[in-house]
Each structure stands twice: as C-alpha cells, then as structure tokens.
C-alpha cells in the first residue's frame, strides 16, 4: 500500500482523535488516496490528500460542539498563554537593557529567539493541558494563540526587519506545536 | 419543530444512504452526494452530517471488519431507521408541494 503524506496523517489523527467516526474518516481518506494513486498517479493523490485534510479539518472544526464553559476555558488559556509569551519576550529585552549588557546584534536576536522558543513551547503545552479534550478544542485554542501572537509579531513588532519577524513567528508556532503535542501526549498517558 | 426539518445536505445524505442500501459507507455516500449535487463535498462535511443524522436517530451505523485497502481500518456502514425514512419522505413531500404550487408554465 502506498503511504499517504505523513504530516497530513498526523493532522488527521490529531483532529479526529476523539471522534466516534475517527477510524471511518481515516479509512475513507486512505481508501480514496489509494484509488486516486492508482487512477491518477501518486503526486496528484498526495496533493488531494493534503487538500482534503485541510477541508475535512475545517468542516469538523465548524461542527464541533463547544459549550460556553469550554469556550471560556479556551479564552482564558489563550489569553494567559498570550500574556506569558509577551511577558517573556519583554523580560528578556528588559534584562538585557537593565544589565547594561551590550550584545552584538546577532547575539541579541539569538537571545530573543531562544526566549520565544521556550515561551512558545510552554504556552503550547499550557494551552493543550488547560483545554484538555477534545483535541478539536485544543486545535482551536492553539490556532488562536499562534495566529494571534503571530499577527502581533508580524505587524506590530518594530523595528526588526520583516524576515526576522517572520522567523520569530515560525519559531513560535513550531515551538508551540511541539509544546502542545507534548501536553496532549502527557494528558493522554494519564 | 425545527429539529424535524432536514436541510438540503441532510436530505441528500439520507437519500443516498437509503439508495445505496448495503453499500452505504462514508466514501461511497460522499461520491454519490457530490455527483448528484455537482459539488465536491469534503469527507469531514459528510461525516459531520452523518453524525447529526445518527444523533437524531435517523440513521444507525455499524463497523465492518478491517480492510487492507484502508490501511487496516474498518468501514462504517449506515442504514436509515424507520424514523429516518419518514423524515426523508416528509422532506421530499414538502419540496414537492412547493414544486406543485408553481405555475405549470414555469415548470415547463
């Protein structure tokens, strides 16, 4: 059997983890992928699988049942994580300034990026743990967190160049994803 | 009252499940509904609809044995309940009533 794109499968597994129809959804995607690979070729089948993963995730998120209590928990977790990341970023900047340390531009940027990675991973982990289940809810919280902070860094963080701001966002999202996966994993083991 | 009303996609999914009979599983229903309505529905949209219909006791489902073509995963086959068939009939009747009320000349 030809394997479907692994990263797309990880997304499908995560989004459908607690659904009653998870095996049926995953199986349907695999079955259609195998059929398309035989009919149209593996490259088109892979493109279909990735696109279908996005469309299916959006559909499932749109139809997720979220109670007011869960929504409040998501908002609180995202807000706390947002403040945490922002605070950590500012703290490092202040510590460098207050300590009178004269860092070379590269070292200063590395310090900022390191801080962002740690803060992002912690925030992702915190959001995953605070929102707990279902993973769909965690996904919404995670997206709100990373997109919110990402937008702030891209549009508001001055005076860095756009590539540096973009690098910060990519690192933050990556770190938050790893943190969230870790938090989700720990929650599942209990 | 609103709970008894079927939406367009719900009606088409239910219709497809009834028509496909023993072959009514997600991928087949998706293909059937997409070709009928001329729109490519996502797997997620079809399963969200199937879930809603099952939650309302209009459908019942059961898993098959695992299949190699699906990476060892089972198919979930759906079957309309008597309440589902009744809801489908009412939904089609309601649409037909509206259709009949239109002027015959418009219909042609």
Structural descriptors:
heterodimer, A: 190 residues, mainly alpha, 7 helices, 0% strand, globular, B: 108 residues, alpha+beta, Arc Repressor Mutant, subunit A, two-stranded antiparallel sheet, 2 strands, elongated
Structure overview:
The complex is a heterodimer of chains A (190) and B (108). With 190 residues, chain A is mostly helical. Chain A has helices spanning 6-16, 22-40, 42-62, 68-98, 105-131, 135-155, 162-189. The longest helix of chain A is centred in the middle third of the chain and has 31 residues, at 68-98. Chain A is globular. With 108 residues, chain B is α+β, with helices and mostly antiparallel strands. In chain B, 57% of the residues lie in helices and 16% in strands. Chain B has a two-stranded antiparallel ribbon with strand order 1-2. Chain B starts with 7 loop residues before the first helix and ends with a helix. The interface between A and B is medium-sized, with 24 and 23 residues.
In brief:
The complex is a heterodimer of chains A (190) and B (108). Chain A is built from 7 helices and no strands. Chain A has helices at residues 6-16, 22-40, 42-62, 68-98, 105-131, 135-155, 162-189.
